[in-house]
């Protein structure tokens, strides 16, 4: 098979761009496919990233792409990857432009698909007054009257972080809570109010949350809310599953220390491999996956030599 590029990177967010940077530094050829669906598009800033704390996500991506301009082996395609097929010698990818291209390795960097709560106001406030990560948005709303929407085994993992930020906290389970008696007792000891009513809407002005409306007719005032998605996480593409990549119980791809999945030649990075969802961690994961691909390519070349 004649290869158009050595590597196909599916996803042009922090993980994919950082993977491209690792590959560019070693003069490996790669095509970055980006369908312009960044997870943090609703947010006006990204945080917890040294030298870029508070920068707009779109500006951060622009700066990274500018850094990549000097690496002539890295190219971009603005569109999606419809499918990827594995052969004995490599991979064939069908792009949304109608073109097929051949690659030696694949990096899955397309992240997760957030599932909005299907009630009025959620989409309008996502990334504005409804957030997923205390490290990304907590500092700006510290000392506020906060809510936390969660009803899973991960609830009590995030709860201490959010409670530490709040002047007072309400835990909304949006239905019957799936908590043990000791967990309910812990909530009482920490003065965290538990509400098991269904949420029917979010009351807001502009980008500012005012209150949550409940099925029993109550309105509960809150200034911001953290939302934990339903498990397992949904990924933005099924290409990894189609190729046979194994996933864990949280819905993430299983990888080794260099980002390799269970399928030979396929690597993964970013939000689709770990619950630690931030730009910094996704970028670090992408850098490692890029380095892992370089090691794999050089190992094959060195062995052949």
Automatic annotation (TrEMBL):
Species name: Leptospira tipperaryensis
Signal sequence region: none
Cross-referenced InterPro entries: FAD/NAD-bd_sf (IPR036188), FAD/NAD-binding_dom (IPR023753), Ferredoxin-NADP_redctase_2 (IPR050097)
Keywords: Flavoprotein, Oxidoreductase
Lineage: Bacteria, Pseudomonadati, Spirochaetota, Spirochaetia, Leptospirales
Short name of any one Pfam family annotated for the protein: Pyr_redox_2
Claim: Cell division is one of the keywords in the record: no
Molecular function per GO: oxidoreductase activity
Residue ranges occupied by any FAD/NAD(P)-binding domain in the UniProt entry: 5-139
SUPFAM superfamilies the record matches: FAD/NAD(P)-binding domain
Protein name per UniProt: Alkyl hydroperoxide reductase
Keyword GTP-binding: no
Membrane spanning residue stretches: none
